[in-house]
Amino acid sequence: MERLNLGDRYEVQQQLSKKPGRQTYLAVDHQTQQQVVIKLLIFSYDFSWDDFKLFEREAGILKTLNHPAIPQYLDSFDLDLPTLKGFAFVQTYISAKSLEEHLQAHRTFSELEVKQIAKDILGVLVYLHEQSPPVIHRDLKPSNILLTDRSAHSAGQVYVVDFGSVQNSVFQEGGTWTITGTYGYAPPEQFSGRAIPTSDLYSLGATLIHLATGRHPADSVEHNVSSQSDQVNQATHLSPGLRRWLRRITELSPKRRFVSSREALQELEALQSENESAIDKPTSSKITLTKSAEELLIQVPPLSVRQKPDRPQLLEQARTSSLVPSFARSLPSPLFILFLILLGAYYGVVLLIMFLLPIIGWALLAGVSLCIFAAPFFLIGNYAKAQLRLVKGREQDSIVLSREFWGVKFHSISTVFQRNQVKLQHLPLKKIEQVSANQISNFSILPMLIIWIDTQEYRLTNLTPLELDWLSQEIQDWLNLPDEQVIE
Protein backbone atom coordinates (compact mmCIF):
# COMPACT_ATOMS: atom_id res chain seq x y z
CA MET A 1 0.00 0.00 0.00
CA GLU A 2 1.26 3.48 -0.85
CA ARG A 3 2.29 5.51 2.17
CA LEU A 4 -0.54 7.81 3.24
CA ASN A 5 -0.22 10.88 5.44
CA LEU A 6 -3.19 11.94 7.52
CA GLY A 7 -3.74 15.11 9.50
CA ASP A 8 -0.38 16.55 8.39
CA ARG A 9 1.49 14.52 11.02
CA TYR A 10 0.51 10.85 10.84
CA GLU A 11 2.08 8.43 8.40
CA VAL A 12 0.04 5.28 7.88
CA GLN A 13 1.97 2.03 8.21
CA GLN A 14 -0.72 -0.61 7.83
CA GLN A 15 -4.43 -1.21 7.93
CA LEU A 16 -5.60 -2.96 11.08
CA SER A 17 -9.28 -3.45 10.26
CA LYS A 18 -11.93 -2.49 7.75
CA LYS A 19 -15.69 -2.43 8.15
CA PRO A 20 -18.37 -0.72 6.07
CA GLY A 21 -17.81 3.00 6.56
CA ARG A 22 -15.04 2.50 9.15
CA GLN A 23 -11.34 1.83 8.87
CA THR A 24 -8.56 1.54 11.45
CA TYR A 25 -4.88 2.15 10.74
CA LEU A 26 -1.55 1.83 12.50
CA ALA A 27 0.47 5.00 11.95
CA VAL A 28 3.52 6.90 13.17
CA ASP A 29 3.15 10.33 14.73
CA HIS A 30 5.95 12.44 13.22
CA GLN A 31 5.89 14.83 16.17
CA THR A 32 6.47 12.19 18.84
CA GLN A 33 7.82 9.34 16.70
CA GLN A 34 5.38 7.06 18.51
CA GLN A 35 3.09 4.52 16.90
CA VAL A 36 -0.59 5.40 17.18
CA VAL A 37 -3.95 4.02 16.09
CA ILE A 38 -6.12 6.14 13.81
CA LYS A 39 -9.81 5.36 13.48
CA LEU A 40 -11.63 6.73 10.45
CA LEU A 41 -15.33 7.25 9.72
CA ILE A 42 -15.61 7.48 5.94
CA PHE A 43 -18.25 9.39 4.01
CA SER A 44 -19.55 6.82 1.56
CA TYR A 45 -22.74 5.43 0.10
CA ASP A 46 -23.30 3.28 3.20
CA PHE A 47 -22.67 6.10 5.70
CA SER A 48 -25.42 6.24 8.36
CA TRP A 49 -26.33 8.57 11.16
CA ASP A 50 -26.02 5.71 13.66
CA ASP A 51 -22.41 5.19 12.54
CA PHE A 52 -21.69 8.85 13.15
CA LYS A 53 -23.27 8.78 16.62
CA LEU A 54 -21.24 5.72 17.65
CA PHE A 55 -18.03 7.20 16.26
CA GLU A 56 -18.58 10.55 17.97
CA ARG A 57 -19.51 8.81 21.22
CA GLU A 58 -16.39 6.62 21.17
CA ALA A 59 -14.08 9.61 20.70
CA GLY A 60 -15.94 11.70 23.26
CA ILE A 61 -15.91 9.04 25.94
CA LEU A 62 -12.25 8.14 25.39
CA LYS A 63 -11.44 11.82 26.03
CA THR A 64 -12.89 11.51 29.52
CA LEU A 65 -11.25 8.20 30.49
CA ASN A 66 -7.89 7.77 32.14
CA HIS A 67 -7.05 4.17 32.94
CA PRO A 68 -3.78 2.30 32.25
CA ALA A 69 -5.63 -0.63 30.64
CA ILE A 70 -7.65 1.56 28.22
CA PRO A 71 -6.22 3.29 25.11
CA GLN A 72 -5.76 7.01 25.62
CA TYR A 73 -7.38 9.58 23.34
CA LEU A 74 -4.75 11.76 21.63
CA ASP A 75 -6.18 13.81 18.76
CA SER A 76 -8.97 14.22 16.24
CA PHE A 77 -9.26 15.86 12.82
CA ASP A 78 -11.40 16.06 9.68
CA LEU A 79 -10.46 14.15 6.55
CA ASP A 80 -10.64 16.11 3.30
CA LEU A 81 -8.54 14.22 0.79
CA PRO A 82 -9.54 13.79 -2.88
CA THR A 83 -10.37 10.11 -2.34
CA LEU A 84 -10.97 10.07 1.40
CA LYS A 85 -13.39 12.28 3.31
CA GLY A 86 -14.72 11.87 6.79
CA PHE A 87 -13.69 12.12 10.44
CA ALA A 88 -10.74 10.67 12.35
CA PHE A 89 -9.49 10.39 15.89
CA VAL A 90 -6.20 9.13 17.26
CA GLN A 91 -5.47 6.93 20.27
CA THR A 92 -2.43 5.28 21.78
CA TYR A 93 -1.20 2.04 20.23
CA ILE A 94 -0.76 -1.08 22.37
CA SER A 95 1.57 -3.66 20.88
CA ALA A 96 -0.06 -6.92 21.91
CA LYS A 97 -1.94 -9.93 20.63
CA SER A 98 -5.63 -10.23 21.31
CA LEU A 99 -7.12 -13.13 23.23
CA GLU A 100 -8.70 -14.14 19.94
CA GLU A 101 -5.25 -14.54 18.37
CA HIS A 102 -4.08 -16.59 21.35
CA LEU A 103 -7.12 -18.87 21.01
CA GLN A 104 -6.57 -19.28 17.28
CA ALA A 105 -2.99 -20.31 18.07
CA HIS A 106 -4.49 -23.05 20.33
CA ARG A 107 -3.14 -21.50 23.51
CA THR A 108 -4.70 -23.01 26.61
CA PHE A 109 -5.48 -21.06 29.77
CA SER A 110 -5.23 -22.51 33.26
CA GLU A 111 -7.72 -21.70 35.99
CA LEU A 112 -5.25 -19.31 37.64
CA GLU A 113 -4.78 -17.50 34.31
CA VAL A 114 -8.53 -17.30 33.71
CA LYS A 115 -9.01 -15.85 37.19
CA GLN A 116 -6.21 -13.33 36.76
CA ILE A 117 -7.57 -12.16 33.40
CA ALA A 118 -11.05 -11.92 34.92
CA LYS A 119 -9.81 -9.82 37.84
CA ASP A 120 -7.91 -7.46 35.55
CA ILE A 121 -10.89 -6.94 33.22
CA LEU A 122 -13.24 -6.51 36.19
CA GLY A 123 -10.91 -3.81 37.46
CA VAL A 124 -11.46 -1.97 34.17
CA LEU A 125 -15.23 -2.55 34.32
CA VAL A 126 -15.41 -1.23 37.88
CA TYR A 127 -13.72 1.96 36.63
CA LEU A 128 -16.09 2.25 33.64
CA HIS A 129 -19.32 1.36 35.43
CA GLU A 130 -18.66 3.71 38.32
CA GLN A 131 -18.38 6.71 36.04
CA SER A 132 -21.34 9.08 36.12
CA PRO A 133 -23.22 8.10 34.05
CA PRO A 134 -21.88 4.52 33.77
CA VAL A 135 -19.81 3.70 30.69
CA ILE A 136 -20.89 0.39 29.14
CA HIS A 137 -18.52 -1.23 26.65
CA ARG A 138 -21.24 -3.41 25.00
CA ASP A 139 -18.82 -5.52 22.95
CA LEU A 140 -16.45 -7.36 25.27
CA LYS A 141 -15.03 -10.41 23.48
CA PRO A 142 -11.61 -12.01 22.94
CA SER A 143 -10.76 -9.86 19.90
CA ASN A 144 -11.27 -6.68 21.99
CA ILE A 145 -9.02 -7.76 24.85
CA LEU A 146 -5.26 -7.57 24.43
CA LEU A 147 -2.69 -9.54 26.42
CA THR A 148 1.00 -8.70 26.82
CA ASP A 149 4.02 -9.75 28.88
CA ARG A 150 3.04 -13.33 29.62
CA SER A 151 5.43 -15.13 31.98
CA ALA A 152 5.61 -18.37 33.92
CA HIS A 153 4.02 -16.60 36.90
CA SER A 154 1.56 -14.31 35.15
CA ALA A 155 -1.10 -14.54 32.47
CA GLY A 156 0.06 -11.15 31.21
CA GLN A 157 -1.09 -7.53 31.22
CA VAL A 158 -4.66 -7.06 30.02
CA TYR A 159 -6.01 -4.16 27.95
CA VAL A 160 -9.60 -3.49 26.91
CA VAL A 161 -9.85 -1.89 23.46
CA ASP A 162 -12.38 -0.98 20.73
CA PHE A 163 -14.93 1.28 22.35
CA GLY A 164 -16.85 1.56 19.08
CA SER A 165 -20.05 0.26 20.70
CA VAL A 166 -19.71 2.17 23.95
CA GLN A 167 -22.73 3.65 25.72
CA ASN A 168 -22.69 6.15 28.55
CA SER A 169 -26.33 6.79 29.30
CA VAL A 170 -28.88 4.88 31.30
CA PHE A 171 -31.48 2.85 29.43
CA GLN A 172 -34.93 4.41 29.37
CA GLU A 173 -38.11 2.77 28.14
CA GLY A 174 -39.29 4.25 24.88
CA GLY A 175 -35.87 5.62 23.92
CA THR A 176 -34.11 4.99 20.62
CA TRP A 177 -31.03 2.76 20.81
CA THR A 178 -28.42 1.36 18.48
CA ILE A 179 -28.24 -2.41 18.83
CA THR A 180 -24.65 -3.61 19.03
CA GLY A 181 -22.79 -6.64 20.29
CA THR A 182 -21.44 -9.93 19.03
CA TYR A 183 -23.52 -13.08 18.81
CA GLY A 184 -22.51 -15.55 21.50
CA TYR A 185 -20.94 -12.90 23.73
CA ALA A 186 -23.77 -10.36 24.02
CA PRO A 187 -26.58 -11.06 26.54
CA PRO A 188 -30.22 -11.34 25.44
CA GLU A 189 -31.26 -7.92 26.72
CA GLN A 190 -28.65 -6.22 24.56
CA PHE A 191 -30.28 -7.42 21.34
CA SER A 192 -33.47 -5.68 22.40
CA GLY A 193 -31.55 -2.44 22.82
CA ARG A 194 -31.43 -2.62 26.60
CA ALA A 195 -27.75 -2.54 27.53
CA ILE A 196 -26.98 -2.12 31.24
CA PRO A 197 -23.71 -2.43 33.20
CA THR A 198 -24.34 -6.10 33.99
CA SER A 199 -24.54 -6.74 30.24
CA ASP A 200 -20.76 -6.31 30.22
CA LEU A 201 -20.52 -8.93 32.97
CA TYR A 202 -22.32 -11.46 30.78
CA SER A 203 -19.95 -10.73 27.89
CA LEU A 204 -16.96 -11.10 30.18
CA GLY A 205 -18.29 -14.43 31.45
CA ALA A 206 -18.81 -15.73 27.91
CA THR A 207 -15.25 -14.66 27.06
CA LEU A 208 -13.82 -16.43 30.11
CA ILE A 209 -15.77 -19.60 29.32
CA HIS A 210 -14.26 -19.49 25.82
CA LEU A 211 -10.79 -19.24 27.36
CA ALA A 212 -11.47 -22.07 29.81
CA THR A 213 -13.09 -24.48 27.36
CA GLY A 214 -11.66 -23.47 23.98
CA ARG A 215 -15.20 -23.46 22.55
CA HIS A 216 -16.74 -20.41 20.93
CA PRO A 217 -20.00 -19.46 22.72
CA ALA A 218 -21.89 -19.23 19.43
CA ASP A 219 -21.21 -22.93 18.77
CA SER A 220 -23.89 -23.90 21.25
CA VAL A 221 -25.99 -20.78 21.71
CA GLU A 222 -28.33 -21.52 18.81
CA HIS A 223 -31.53 -23.25 19.96
CA ASN A 224 -30.14 -23.61 23.49
CA VAL A 225 -31.02 -20.90 25.96
CA SER A 226 -28.78 -22.35 28.68
CA SER A 227 -25.66 -22.95 26.63
CA GLN A 228 -23.32 -20.97 28.89
CA SER A 229 -24.31 -23.09 31.90
CA ASP A 230 -23.93 -26.24 29.85
CA GLN A 231 -20.41 -25.26 28.81
CA VAL A 232 -19.48 -24.43 32.40
CA ASN A 233 -20.82 -27.79 33.59
CA GLN A 234 -18.58 -29.52 31.05
CA ALA A 235 -15.50 -27.64 32.30
CA THR A 236 -14.81 -30.20 35.02
CA HIS A 237 -11.16 -29.11 35.23
CA LEU A 238 -12.32 -25.87 36.88
CA SER A 239 -12.96 -25.68 40.60
CA PRO A 240 -16.59 -25.77 41.79
CA GLY A 241 -16.30 -22.23 43.10
CA LEU A 242 -15.18 -20.80 39.77
CA ARG A 243 -17.87 -22.76 37.92
CA ARG A 244 -20.51 -21.30 40.25
CA TRP A 245 -19.12 -17.81 39.67
CA LEU A 246 -19.13 -18.25 35.87
CA ARG A 247 -22.69 -19.57 35.86
CA ARG A 248 -23.88 -16.62 37.90
CA ILE A 249 -22.16 -14.00 35.79
CA THR A 250 -23.71 -15.47 32.63
CA GLU A 251 -27.26 -15.83 33.91
CA LEU A 252 -29.76 -14.99 31.17
CA SER A 253 -31.76 -12.80 33.55
CA PRO A 254 -29.85 -9.63 34.55
CA LYS A 255 -31.48 -9.82 38.00
CA ARG A 256 -29.65 -13.08 38.68
CA ARG A 257 -26.20 -11.84 37.79
CA PHE A 258 -23.97 -9.99 40.19
CA VAL A 259 -25.49 -6.60 40.86
CA SER A 260 -22.29 -4.82 39.86
CA SER A 261 -18.80 -5.39 38.53
CA ARG A 262 -17.45 -4.56 41.98
CA GLU A 263 -19.49 -7.33 43.59
CA ALA A 264 -18.36 -9.76 40.87
CA LEU A 265 -14.74 -8.81 41.57
CA GLN A 266 -15.15 -9.21 45.33
CA GLU A 267 -16.76 -12.63 44.93
CA LEU A 268 -14.01 -13.74 42.57
CA GLU A 269 -11.27 -12.61 44.93
CA ALA A 270 -12.98 -14.50 47.76
CA LEU A 271 -12.76 -17.79 45.91
CA GLN A 272 -10.20 -20.25 47.22
CA SER A 273 -10.10 -22.44 44.14
CA GLU A 274 -6.57 -23.59 44.70
CA ASN A 275 -7.76 -25.31 47.91
CA GLU A 276 -11.13 -26.47 46.63
CA SER A 277 -11.68 -29.56 44.56
CA ALA A 278 -14.79 -31.27 43.30
CA ILE A 279 -16.32 -33.84 45.62
CA ASP A 280 -17.23 -36.97 43.73
CA LYS A 281 -20.15 -39.24 44.55
CA PRO A 282 -19.12 -41.76 47.24
CA THR A 283 -18.51 -45.10 45.57
CA SER A 284 -20.80 -47.00 47.95
CA SER A 285 -23.68 -44.52 47.77
CA LYS A 286 -27.00 -45.64 46.27
CA ILE A 287 -28.27 -42.07 45.99
CA THR A 288 -28.87 -40.99 42.39
CA LEU A 289 -28.35 -37.45 41.17
CA THR A 290 -29.17 -36.20 37.68
CA LYS A 291 -28.83 -32.62 36.55
CA SER A 292 -29.10 -30.36 33.58
CA ALA A 293 -28.97 -26.60 33.28
CA GLU A 294 -32.72 -26.49 34.02
CA GLU A 295 -33.22 -29.23 36.63
CA LEU A 296 -31.48 -30.99 39.50
CA LEU A 297 -33.04 -34.25 40.74
CA ILE A 298 -31.84 -36.14 43.81
CA GLN A 299 -33.34 -39.52 44.75
CA VAL A 300 -32.48 -41.00 48.14
CA PRO A 301 -33.44 -44.70 48.41
CA PRO A 302 -34.98 -46.07 51.62
CA LEU A 303 -32.58 -46.44 54.49
CA SER A 304 -33.37 -50.16 54.50
CA VAL A 305 -31.46 -50.61 51.24
CA ARG A 306 -28.63 -48.25 52.18
CA GLN A 307 -26.11 -48.12 54.96
CA LYS A 308 -27.92 -48.71 58.26
CA PRO A 309 -27.20 -46.58 61.32
CA ASP A 310 -26.05 -47.96 64.65
CA ARG A 311 -29.22 -48.28 66.73
CA PRO A 312 -30.68 -50.70 69.37
CA GLN A 313 -31.35 -54.04 67.69
CA LEU A 314 -34.97 -54.25 68.87
CA LEU A 315 -36.28 -55.81 65.69
CA GLU A 316 -33.52 -58.42 65.68
CA GLN A 317 -34.28 -59.29 69.30
CA ALA A 318 -38.01 -59.54 68.55
CA ARG A 319 -37.36 -61.94 65.67
CA THR A 320 -35.74 -64.40 68.09
CA SER A 321 -38.53 -64.19 70.67
CA SER A 322 -40.40 -67.43 71.46
CA LEU A 323 -43.68 -65.51 71.13
CA VAL A 324 -43.04 -64.93 67.43
CA PRO A 325 -43.94 -67.85 65.11
CA SER A 326 -41.10 -69.12 62.97
CA PHE A 327 -42.81 -68.18 59.68
CA ALA A 328 -42.84 -64.49 60.70
CA ARG A 329 -39.16 -64.25 61.59
CA SER A 330 -38.06 -64.03 57.95
CA LEU A 331 -40.59 -61.36 56.94
CA PRO A 332 -39.24 -58.07 55.54
CA SER A 333 -38.93 -55.44 58.25
CA PRO A 334 -42.03 -53.39 57.27
CA LEU A 335 -44.23 -56.51 57.26
CA PHE A 336 -42.59 -57.78 60.44
CA ILE A 337 -43.44 -54.51 62.22
CA LEU A 338 -47.07 -54.78 61.11
CA PHE A 339 -47.10 -58.40 62.29
CA LEU A 340 -45.80 -57.37 65.74
CA ILE A 341 -48.54 -54.74 66.01
CA LEU A 342 -51.23 -57.29 65.16
CA LEU A 343 -49.65 -59.86 67.47
CA GLY A 344 -49.64 -57.41 70.37
CA ALA A 345 -53.27 -56.49 69.69
CA TYR A 346 -54.17 -60.19 69.60
CA TYR A 347 -52.56 -60.99 72.98
CA GLY A 348 -54.06 -57.86 74.54
CA VAL A 349 -57.56 -58.74 73.39
CA VAL A 350 -57.19 -62.40 74.49
CA LEU A 351 -56.06 -61.41 77.98
CA LEU A 352 -58.93 -58.98 78.35
CA ILE A 353 -61.54 -61.43 77.08
CA MET A 354 -60.34 -64.17 79.38
CA PHE A 355 -60.23 -61.68 82.30
CA LEU A 356 -56.72 -62.79 82.97
CA LEU A 357 -54.21 -60.23 83.99
CA PRO A 358 -56.35 -57.27 82.79
CA ILE A 359 -53.67 -54.77 83.71
CA ILE A 360 -51.24 -56.50 81.38
CA GLY A 361 -53.95 -56.66 78.70
CA TRP A 362 -54.65 -52.95 78.92
CA ALA A 363 -50.90 -52.26 78.92
CA LEU A 364 -50.53 -54.34 75.79
CA LEU A 365 -53.35 -52.48 74.07
CA ALA A 366 -51.82 -49.14 75.09
CA GLY A 367 -48.49 -50.27 73.70
CA VAL A 368 -50.15 -51.42 70.50
CA SER A 369 -51.91 -48.05 70.17
CA LEU A 370 -48.60 -46.29 70.61
CA CYS A 371 -46.99 -48.56 68.02
CA ILE A 372 -49.83 -47.94 65.58
CA PHE A 373 -49.27 -44.19 66.02
CA ALA A 374 -45.47 -44.42 65.72
CA ALA A 375 -45.28 -47.09 63.03
CA PRO A 376 -45.99 -44.78 60.05
CA PHE A 377 -43.22 -42.42 61.12
CA PHE A 378 -40.79 -45.30 61.58
CA LEU A 379 -41.72 -46.94 58.30
CA ILE A 380 -41.57 -43.69 56.34
CA GLY A 381 -38.28 -42.72 57.90
CA ASN A 382 -36.67 -46.06 57.13
CA TYR A 383 -38.51 -47.43 54.09
CA ALA A 384 -39.68 -44.40 52.08
CA LYS A 385 -37.76 -43.02 49.14
CA ALA A 386 -37.08 -39.27 49.20
CA GLN A 387 -37.01 -37.20 46.02
CA LEU A 388 -35.77 -33.60 45.84
CA ARG A 389 -36.35 -31.69 42.62
CA LEU A 390 -34.97 -28.21 41.90
CA VAL A 391 -36.14 -26.47 38.73
CA LYS A 392 -34.60 -23.29 37.36
CA GLY A 393 -36.87 -20.54 35.99
CA ARG A 394 -36.19 -17.23 34.32
CA GLU A 395 -36.84 -15.13 37.41
CA GLN A 396 -37.49 -17.67 40.20
CA ASP A 397 -36.55 -21.26 40.96
CA SER A 398 -38.78 -23.94 42.45
CA ILE A 399 -38.18 -26.79 44.88
CA VAL A 400 -40.27 -29.92 45.49
CA LEU A 401 -39.53 -32.52 48.18
CA SER A 402 -41.67 -35.67 48.13
CA ARG A 403 -41.54 -39.13 49.64
CA GLU A 404 -42.68 -42.43 48.15
CA PHE A 405 -43.63 -45.53 50.11
CA TRP A 406 -44.50 -48.74 48.25
CA GLY A 407 -45.16 -46.80 45.04
CA VAL A 408 -47.41 -44.19 46.70
CA LYS A 409 -46.20 -40.56 46.68
CA PHE A 410 -47.12 -38.45 49.68
CA HIS A 411 -45.90 -35.66 51.92
CA SER A 412 -44.95 -33.36 49.04
CA ILE A 413 -43.93 -29.80 49.87
CA SER A 414 -42.93 -27.18 47.33
CA THR A 415 -42.35 -23.47 46.84
CA VAL A 416 -40.77 -20.94 44.49
CA PHE A 417 -37.86 -18.85 45.66
CA GLN A 418 -35.12 -16.38 44.89
CA ARG A 419 -31.61 -17.65 45.47
CA ASN A 420 -30.84 -15.07 48.12
CA GLN A 421 -33.54 -16.76 50.24
CA VAL A 422 -31.66 -20.08 50.31
CA LYS A 423 -29.35 -21.43 52.98
CA LEU A 424 -27.83 -24.91 53.18
CA GLN A 425 -27.32 -26.32 56.66
CA HIS A 426 -25.16 -29.34 57.51
CA LEU A 427 -26.14 -31.44 60.52
CA PRO A 428 -23.25 -33.87 61.06
CA LEU A 429 -23.21 -37.39 62.47
CA LYS A 430 -24.33 -37.41 66.12
CA LYS A 431 -23.36 -40.19 68.52
CA ILE A 432 -25.83 -40.76 71.36
CA GLU A 433 -25.31 -42.85 74.47
CA GLN A 434 -28.35 -43.95 76.50
CA VAL A 435 -27.93 -45.19 80.05
CA SER A 436 -30.88 -46.91 81.71
CA ALA A 437 -31.20 -49.67 84.32
CA ASN A 438 -27.48 -50.26 84.35
CA GLN A 439 -27.55 -50.78 80.60
CA ILE A 440 -25.69 -48.61 78.12
CA SER A 441 -27.01 -48.31 74.57
CA ASN A 442 -25.10 -46.52 71.82
CA PHE A 443 -26.64 -45.39 68.57
CA SER A 444 -26.14 -42.72 65.92
CA ILE A 445 -28.27 -40.11 64.24
CA LEU A 446 -27.02 -39.99 60.67
CA PRO A 447 -26.11 -36.66 59.04
CA MET A 448 -28.79 -34.64 57.29
CA LEU A 449 -28.82 -31.74 54.86
CA ILE A 450 -31.41 -29.01 55.40
CA ILE A 451 -32.31 -26.60 52.62
CA TRP A 452 -33.83 -23.48 54.15
CA ILE A 453 -36.10 -21.29 52.00
CA ASP A 454 -36.53 -18.44 54.45
CA THR A 455 -38.16 -20.32 57.38
CA GLN A 456 -39.35 -23.37 55.41
CA GLU A 457 -37.05 -26.38 55.65
CA TYR A 458 -36.51 -29.27 53.25
CA ARG A 459 -34.62 -32.19 54.78
CA LEU A 460 -32.54 -34.92 53.20
CA THR A 461 -31.98 -37.30 56.11
CA ASN A 462 -30.02 -40.44 56.95
CA LEU A 463 -26.99 -39.49 54.87
CA THR A 464 -23.44 -40.60 55.40
CA PRO A 465 -20.85 -37.84 56.05
CA LEU A 466 -19.48 -38.29 52.51
CA GLU A 467 -22.97 -38.11 51.00
CA LEU A 468 -23.66 -34.96 53.02
CA ASP A 469 -20.58 -33.19 51.62
CA TRP A 470 -21.24 -34.41 48.08
CA LEU A 471 -24.91 -33.39 47.93
CA SER A 472 -24.25 -30.07 49.61
CA GLN A 473 -21.62 -29.15 47.05
CA GLU A 474 -23.81 -30.29 44.15
CA ILE A 475 -26.74 -28.15 45.31
CA GLN A 476 -24.53 -25.17 46.09
CA ASP A 477 -22.84 -25.55 42.72
CA TRP A 478 -26.11 -25.85 40.79
CA LEU A 479 -27.76 -22.88 42.54
CA ASN A 480 -24.56 -20.78 42.36
CA LEU A 481 -24.76 -20.07 46.09
CA PRO A 482 -21.87 -18.17 47.70
CA ASP A 483 -20.13 -19.82 50.65
CA GLU A 484 -21.81 -17.50 53.18
CA GLN A 485 -25.15 -19.18 52.37
CA VAL A 486 -23.81 -22.54 53.57
CA ILE A 487 -24.02 -23.21 57.33
CA GLU A 488 -21.59 -25.83 58.58
Percentage of residues in strands: 25-35%
What Rg, in angstroms, do the CA atoms define?
A: 33 Å
CATH topology of the largest domain: Transferase(Phosphotransferase), domain 1
Count of the separate structural domains: 4
Q: By CATH's scheme, which homologous superfamily of the largest domain applies?
A: Transferase(Phosphotransferase) domain 1
CATH architecture of the largest domain: Orthogonal Bundle
Helix segment tally:
12
Measured between the Cα atoms of the first and last residue, the distance is 68 Å
| Arrangement of strands in the largest sheet | 1-2-3-4-6-5
Q: Report the strand count.
A: 20
Overview of the molecule:
With 488 residues, the protein is α+β, with helices and mostly antiparallel strands. The protein folds into four domains: 88 residues, Phosphorylase Kinase, domain 1 (2-Layer Sandwich); 179 residues, Transferase(Phosphotransferase) domain 1 (Transferase(Phosphotransferase), domain 1); 119 residues, no CATH class; 70 residues, no CATH class. The chain contains twelve helices and 20 strands. A hairpin with a 2-residue loop joins strand 5 and strand 6. Helix 3 runs antiparallel to helix 4 and helix 7 packs parallel to helix 12. The radius of gyration is 33 Å and the shape is elongated. The relative contact order is 0.07.
Short description:
By secondary structure, the protein is of the alpha+beta class. It has 12 helices and 20 strands. The chain folds into 4 domains: 5-92, Phosphorylase Kinase, domain 1 (2-Layer Sandwich), CATH 3.30.200; 97-275, Orthogonal Bundle (Transferase(Phosphotransferase), domain 1); 288-302 and 384-487, no CATH class; 314-383, no CATH class.
